[in-house]
Amino acid sequence: MNIKIIYSEIHKQHNPPFEIYDGVKESYAEKSDRIEAIIKTLRENGVNKFYSPEEFSIRNIYSIHQKEYVNFLQKRSASLNGDQVLYPSYFIMDTYTPIVKGTYDAARSAVNVALSGAQRILNGQGVVYSLCRPPGHHAEQKAMSGYCYFNNAAIAANYLSDHGKVAILDIDFHHGNGTQNMFYERKDVLYVSLHADPRLMFPYVSGYADELGKSQGLGFNKNYPLPLRINNKEYSRTLLKALEEIKKFDPKFLVVSLGFDTYEKDPIGGFKLTLSFYKDIAKNIKNLRLPTLLIQEGGYYTQDLGKLSFNFLQGME
Ligand code: OKP
Ligand code: ZN
After folding, report:
1. Which of 88, 148, 165, 191 could covalently link to 251 via disulfide, CB atoms 3.0 to 4.6 Å apart?
2. Under a CB-based contact definition with an 8 Å cutoff, are residues 60 and 114 in contact?
3. pLDDT above 90: residue 1
4. 174 lines ligand 1 (CB under 6 A)
């Protein structure tokens, strides 16, 4: 397989033990095993072009996140002992996004993973897969939420946007509120998202069809909220519409926020997409014939994540 994969094991340092859902402590769904399971299966299937990320300047993060927010995450992470979990209230919007000692380093490294992928795209690589963890698309300019601290896809898209128009296709099960907001008033970055109806599912506050962008960015934001239990065929129909939108925009680069929580067995999802269908999704995306940076977002059925990822990559080849 020709596709290059960027990965850093620093993500393992971010390992919160629990989240709180509806008042009840549950084991943390966004586990480090997720990425390790993907690596393992890819290796077993002969996919072996793994590369470590380069260090990128913190300025790339500051152009998307408020400086105080970044410094807060760094200071509070560093202040913790190995077994402490902090729900700081400052800069935090929910009970899914605690800070542990390794959070800042892992989140910073995920940004380097994303930017290293973007740099390879600029150098002429056709498809690059950045195995980011923690995920990023819910992270706002100054708020962490939904397992996300720094917005990897937004930072990478912003980096690419110095060199031409960028379309972001978000196919995680959840709406990427953070990414939408970062580019809401920009016309050089199109955000298109397919996700579960936010009246029913996280992040609840955004992802509605009438959110179309603002001022200069009006018309450059497009949401496709979908009903629960949607199947391959129904999903395909909407995906093709979303891809048409991207074609019309005629971008120079494509960034895909890639979540596997649309899978039928996902413990926190609710769609009915099947394992083999991920190859079809990828084939359709590949038909755009754009330099494409894949950014890993969610996907929580650890047992099948490797196969989901491998099927997707096969479709991208
Ligand atoms: C992050 B990403 C489970 C509730 C989970 C948080 C969802 C965050 C999703 N008990 N709610 O978009 O995959
Ligand atoms: Zn998700």
Report:
1. 165
2. no
3. no
4. yes
Please state the pTM of the whole predicted model. Answer: 0.98
Tell how far the Cα of 201 is from the centroid of ligand 1, in angstroms. Answer: 9
The alpha carbons of the chain give a radius of gyration, in whole angstroms, of: 18
Structure tokens at 24: 């009840």
Q: For the residues 242-257, what does the mean pLDDT come to?
A: 98
Cβ neighbours of 197 (radius 10 Å) = 16
Burial category of 123 from C-beta neighbours within 10 Å (exposed 0-12, middle 13-18, buried 19 and up): exposed
Cα 73 to Cα 237: distance, rounded to the nearest angstrom: 41
Mutate to test the pocket of ligand 1, among 268, 301, 302 (most ligand atoms within 8 A of CB): 268
CA 137, CA 153: separation in Å to the nearest integer? 7
CB 130 within 8 A of CB 296: yes
Q: Which of 28, 95, 96, 256 to mutate to test the pocket of ligand 1 (most atoms within 8 A of CB)?
A: 96
Q: Pull the structure tokens for residue 127.
A: 């498809």
Alpha-carbon gap, residue 147 to 139, rounded angstroms:
8
Report which of 130, 116, 142 is spatially closest to residue 55, judged by C-alpha positions: 116
**Atom 3 (ligand 1): residue with closest C-alpha?**
268
Q: Indicate which residue's Cα is closest to atom 9 of ligand 1.
A: 146
Residue 200 has pLDDT above 90, yes or no: yes
In the chain, the amino acid numbered 264 is E
Question: Which tens digit of pLDDT belongs to each residue from 120-164?
Answer: 999 999 999 999 999 999 999 999 999 999 999 999 999 999 999
Mean pLDDT (the chain) is 97
Residues involved in catalysis: 138
Separation CA 252–CA 153 (nearest Å)? 16
